Amino acid sequence: MQAGFCICFELSLRFLDQYAMNRFLDWMNIPPWNPPPPLESRKHYSFRSILFEKWVYTSTHQLFGDIDFRFIFFIVRRCVMKKLGLFVILMIFIVACKPTNAVPTVFGSTQTPLPVVSATTETDQWRILESLATAAHPIHKENPTNEWSQNVLAENLLFSSGLQIRISLASSTGANGILFTATRPGDTLSGQPFWEGHKRLELFYENGMINVLLRDGSMEEPVYSNQFQLEGNHNELLLVLDQHARNIEIRQVDRVLFAISPAEVGDFTGGLFPEGRILTVELSSAPQSKCDVTELTFLIPHSDFVKLPPTGTPNVQLPDFVIPNGLGVNVHFLVGQPWELDAIEEAGFGLARADAYWYEIEPSKGVYDFSATDIFVKSLTQRNIQAMFLLSSGNPLYDDGLAPHTEEGRLAFARFAGALAERYAGRGIIWDLWGEPNGEWSWKPGPNVQDYASFALEVISSIRQADPSAIIVGPGICCFEEPNSWYFYEELGRQGLFNQFDAVGIHSYNYPVLAPEQVPTLYDHLRKIVDTYSPERNIPIINNEYGYSTGWPGIDETRQAEYLARSWLINQANGVNLSLWYDWKDDGPDKNDPEDNFGLNDVNGRPKPAYMAAKTLMHTLKGYHFDRRISSSNDAAYLLLFSNGEESILVAWTSGTTHPISLPLTGDVSIVSMLGGESMLAGNPQGLTIMLNSSPQYIMLGRQKIQ
User: Fold this and answer.
1) pLDDT digit string (tens) for 163-185?
2) pTM reported for the whole predicted model
3) Of these four, 125, 337, 404, 478, which has the most CB atoms within 10 Å of its CB?
C-alpha cells in the first residue's frame, strides 16, 4: 500500500513538473523547444532536466543579466520534486518581476554565454562530444531578388566518418536562431547567430531551388556542387556524402534535414573527399524562394556520446593505391613468434589478416576474452602494419556451433563483433565479414544466401554502432567454377547488402587455376553486378583472399613466386587496391596436399621464392602507384608503368613465351629481378632491347620518360 502510494505520488510530481514548466514558458512568452528526434541507436534518456535547465537559465538571464543561475535551477528543481508550493511562489515572483518590454532572448546568442558540452581531459583516451540543439525561436526569411543568395556558410568542417551535421527546418514564425559547427573531432562546439540583415547565415528553401557547394581549404572552385528542387515547406534534403558525393535524395517529411554523414556511406577510395580534409559547406537559395527556420542542430550520430579518436590519430580508411599499403598476408595466429612478425615487417607488408574465432573469444555466454586479439593488434601497431580481422566460425554456445542462422545466434554474433569493434575503435582495423559463405566448408551445414544476408545486416549494424568509422568488407565469395558463386553476389545485391559494405570482396580461387592475367575477367563480372544494384556508389572491389598452392599441378615454387608478383601488379592495374595473399606459412608437411602448401614459407619457416618475390616488389615499388600500361605489339607483353610523382619504374614480363622487346630509352637503366638481383643496362641512342620472360623485372627509369 505504502509502495503504491509512493509510486503514484512520484508520477504525480513528474506530471506537475512538466505541466508547471510548460505554464512557466507560456507566461514568459518562450515557445516550446523541440529536441532533435532520437536517431535509431541513440540512448533514450529523458531530456526533461536538460530542457528545464536551459529555459530557466534563459529566462532568468532576461530578468537579471549575465549571472550564473545554475544554483537557481537547482533550487527550482528541488522545489518541483519535493515541495511544489515553493515552486509556485518562485514562479509568481518571477512573473511579477517580469519587465513589460522584455524581448525573448535566443539561448546561445551573443547576449547569452554559449554553453559548451565536452569532455576532454589530459588522461582521456578519447574525446567525447555531446549533441547540442538550439534555435528555440523560429525565423522567416525570403529571397525576393532575382539572384542566388548565400544562406549558410559553415567553415572548417573536418570531413570525418565520425561526424554528422544536421540542419532542421520547419514551418513557423519567430525571431532568431543559431547554427552550430565544430572544426575537428574533440573540439568544442562554436555557435554563430543569424538574424535579420545577417545575410551570411540566412536560409531560404520553400518552393525553390537550393544550391549546395563544398569547398576545400583553398576556397577555389567548389569540389562539389549540385542543385535540388524543394516543394512545399516540409521536406528532407538528405545529402549523404561519400568521397564521390553520391546518394542524394529528397522526400516529404514533417521537418527538413540537411545532413553530411560520411559514416552512413564510407566510400574510402580516396576520391573527391579523402577523410580528414577540411571542407566548407555553403548553401545558397534560388531567386524568389523562402523558408521558415525553427531549429538548427549539430549532432553526433549513433548515440548521445560517441568515441572519437584523439587529435593526431591517423585517419582510418581502406588502404590507398600507394605500394605497399594495400598488400597483405593472411596469418594463422594471433600470438605469433617474434621472428615471424619481424619477417612480415621486413618484407614490407602493409597489412595482415588473422581469424578472430568467435568460440575462442566468447568461451562463455556474454564473457569475452580479448587477450589474444590485444596482442595481435599491439604487435602489428608497433610494426606500422594495419590489422584485418576475419570474423567467422561458429560457437558451440549458439546454433550447435554451426553458422549463425537463428535470431539468437545472429544477435549473439553481432554482440561479439560489436564488442570487438568498440574495443579497437579508431585503430584502423578492417573487419572481414565471414569468408566464403557460399561454401559448405565455411557456412555449415550448407550455404544459404538469405541466412548470410540476415546475419550480415545484424552484424554490420552492431559494428557501426560501436565504431562509426569502422571499415567493413565482405562477403569474399570464391570458386567461380561453382554455379552458386555468381548467384550469391546477385542475391546479395538484390537485397541491398552491397551498400552496407565499404568494399565488396572476392576470393579469386578458381579451378582450373587461372593465371593472374585471367583474373580481371572475374573483377569485370563482379563490377557489373555491383554497379547494377548499387549504381551510385562506385563501391571498391578488393581481393581479400587468394593464393597459389605449390601442391597444385603445374605450380612449383618458382611459378608460385611469379604468380604472386604478377597478381599484385595486375590488381593494381585493374583498380583493386587491397590484395591479400593466402597464406603466410604452409599448414602441413604433405607436399601433395594443396591445403598444406599455400605459404610464402614452408611448414618449418623456410622462406620460399614467393617470400623473396613479395619482399622485392614491396621494397622496389615502395611509395609508387600504378600509372598506366605501355602499349606493345605483342599482347602477351605486360609493361606496367609505376610513378611516385618524380621518378618512374617500368615492370615488365610476358604471359606467353620468352621474347625480346624494344624500349625507346637512351639512358642507362638498372634492372631488378623478381627475386632482388640487380644488373645494369648501358644506354643506347637507338633504344634498349630487353628480353621478357614469365618473371617480372623492375626497370628503374628514374626521370626518363617513356611513351
Assistant:
1) 333 443 333 233 233 333 333 33
2) 0.59
3) 404
